[in-house]
Amino acid sequence: MIYTERLLALSEYRKLLEELKAAEQYRDLCRHDLAHFMDVARIGRVIACEQNLQLTADDIYLAALLHDVGRMQEYKHGIPHEEAGVNIATTFLEDIDYPVSKRNTILAAVAGHRAEKEDEDLLTKVIRTADKLSRPCFLCKIADECYWPEELKNKSFFY
Hints:
The chain is mostly helical. The chain is built from eight helices and no strands. It has helices at 2-9, 11-23, 34-50, 57-66, 71-77, 81-95, 100-112, 122-133.
């Protein structure tokens, strides 16, 4: 997973993770930190393996590690994080020399991880599903205050 390793080694990516961690340190709802990103990646990888999907581990991990990178722009400027994340992810993909021919797939997953669309690709579906499944709602101390509809809350773990 050469590109995933390159991303995790980038000082700007690490700086963004630290900034996000500091911004959310008192957040009671689910946090958007490296642990969450890795949960999404691992669940996405399990889904891909179980369903014999033709997705590489590197692509799944990159999309998962980048899917919420726009959160700080949402907090600071009110820009939806999936929109802001595309610009940030584009820069990171350039910085790690990720193949230009494959960048749109990762960027589509970043842009589309919150809402289902008719013509979305497989990676986007996997990341969105893994993102939702990563939340341990059944352990949440403030589940009653969460904005997620009851039917979407994870009442137990699946992965």
